[in-house]
């Protein structure tokens, strides 16, 4: 919750990297109900440089979540990827370089098609 509040505050752009690092570190520890806020924070800080790292963190942390939560997360991430060509390129590279595709990968790719 605190990380989500920080993402909504008007912080200088120079703090985006640190905020994304905090959100990524919290993913494996977070309660499932907090994941949408953490993921929204992560994709809100997405840059061409950080896209691959962020997408790998999401891929590893989101495997065991419920279908309902996955649906919410797909909406959040799908919207961010639609407006970020470098992030889509990173996603495609990630999927191509590390088969087999996870449930998250397949659903996200379908959401973007």
How would you describe this structure in keywords?
113 residues, mainly alpha, 7 helices, 69% helix, globular
What does this structure look like?
Helix 4 (51-61) packs across helix 6 (85-97). With 113 residues, the chain is mainly α. The mean pLDDT is 81. The chain has helices spanning 2-8, 16-26, 35-44, 51-61, 67-82, 85-97, 103-112.
Number of strands: 0
Beta fraction of the residues?
under 5%
Helix content: 55-70%
Structural class per helix/strand content? mainly alpha
Shape: globular
Using only CA atoms, what is the Rg?
13 Å
Mean pLDDT: 81
Tell me the major beta sheet.
none
Q: Any chance you could write out the topology, listing elements then pairs?
A:
Layout (H helix, E strand, L loop, with lengths): L1 H7 L7 H11 L8 H10 L6 H11 L5 H16 L2 H13 L5 H10 L1
Briefly, what is this?
The protein has 7 helices and no strands. The chain has 113 residues and is an all-alpha fold.
